[in-house]
Structure formats: structure tokens, C-alpha cells
Amino acid sequence: MWNFAANQFVFFMKNKRTHQQVILKSFTFSLLFFISILILSLPANAQDSNIVKYNDSLALENVLVEKYYVADSSGSILPKHSIVYRIYIDMKPGYTLQAVYGDKKHELVIKTSTKFYNDKICSAETGFNVDIKKIQINAVAFDSWITMGAAARGYTGIPLSEDNSERFSFLDSNISFKKKDGLTKGVLPDFTTFNLDLKFFNNDSSATKFSTDNGGWAALGGIKGPTPENKVLIAQLTTTGLLSFKINVQIGTPSGASVKFVYDNPGDSEIKNSKLKFN
Known about the structure:
Helices cover 5% and strands 38% of the residues. The protein contains two helices and 19 strands. It has a six-stranded mixed β-sheet, with helices on one face. A four-stranded antiparallel β-sheet has the order 3-4-14-7, with no helix packed on it. A four-stranded antiparallel β-sheet has the order 12-6-15-19, with no helix packed on it. The two termini are 27 Å apart.
């Protein structure tokens, strides 16, 4: 299991009727406890075995790195040659993405050879913080952040190749998004992070490397993609440089079990998938 050092963790859940945040509990716990929360939020009918079934070992089909937008003209708000990347976890139908993480044996690293663009107006640390009402202002739509599905408040990220909502685009002022914008109305999961410094996504001067060997982000109960292709957005990253990353993910199975996929050196009950490492 993940071996996080004990840390203080205050878990907030939004009351859907009042939209007020309610503190449920404050306590000290390890990564083992963090993972148990994720698993217990699923149907508890397959938690007694560490043996990974063959079909479940194939749950992670691909890691899609989409070039969402390329600033190839001097008229762009972004620095010239900037590329907005979106990273999707592509799973077999019926599976859910539970967490993206790094541990002592498998450090999570997301970096660029230059720096990541962080919009000063948006200042979103996660896709859940992007204000859909401001998405056409400045370069708000191209801010860098992490997420579990959300690309804006109330909206799920969807690959442009699968976005069929051609009659409407929030970004229609940009010729690249006249018919599709990679956003679709959706029900977003309860999102949480552990032991991450999200101030990284507010810094536009030294944001070059985001890493953890003791943290991650998660969707309580897991999340499926917005189409039958089952691709879940986990990050949007804008840079003029060369993007590279190595990540690990935990995926929930249809039977209620969980499987950990790592980019290298798998341990017991872990599955290696080299697609989790990019460049």
C-alpha cells in the first residue's frame, strides 16, 4: 500500500443544498488510511483479495496527451509557441479512476524544459476552480491545473475528437474553438488532494517541476469519462517547453476492487504500464 508519513488532513465536503463547506473531521492518518477511504467509498464486495484479475490488469488502455491548443501566431494571448496539453487516463468501459499519486518507489513528476503558464486572472489550482463565466477572459481557458474530470465548475473535460456539441462553444471567440471547446456539462465527483503544494499552479515565474513521492489527488467513489470511450481528464498544462511526466494511477474495477498502475518497478499487486511515462 502507499506509505505516506502521518500528516494532518482536514477533509471538506460541499453541502450540495447550501453550497457551504462543512468540516467533517480533522485527524492524523497515513496513506494507508487515505486509500482505505477511496476504497470504502465504492461497493464493498471485492476488498478481500490482493490478486489482480487478468481483465483488471488491462483496465488502463492508454494515457492520452492531447494538444488542446497551440499558440502559433503573434496575436495569441499566450507566449508564441505555447502548447496547451491535456492529459487523459483512458480506461476500459466500466472502470473508474480513483487516484493519481506518487510514492517513495514511484515519484510523481510533471515538468517542462521552460516553465508552465499560470493565468493571473484565473489562478486556478484545479479544474474545479475554473470559473466558466470568466473562461473567455484573457487566457483563463489555458491556465495550468490538475483535476479529476473537471475542466470548469459544472463542466467535464472531453477530448476535442469526442466533443460533438458543435452548436455551442464557450470559446467561440477563438477560431480554434468555433464548433467545439472540450467542455461538456457533467456531474463532478467529490475531489480531494493529499500532501500537495498547489501553490505551484499560482506561480508563473518558477513553475517548472511539480512532484511528490508522498501525495496525490483523488475522486471519492471514482470517476468515469463523459463518453463510452471512458477517458478522464487529470491535468491541463501550458508551456513553451518540452513537457514530460511520470505518474501512477489507481483504478476501480466493476467488481469493487482497486488496481494500482505504476510507470516502472512494480511491487506486489501493482501493474507496470509504460504509457504512464511521457518523454
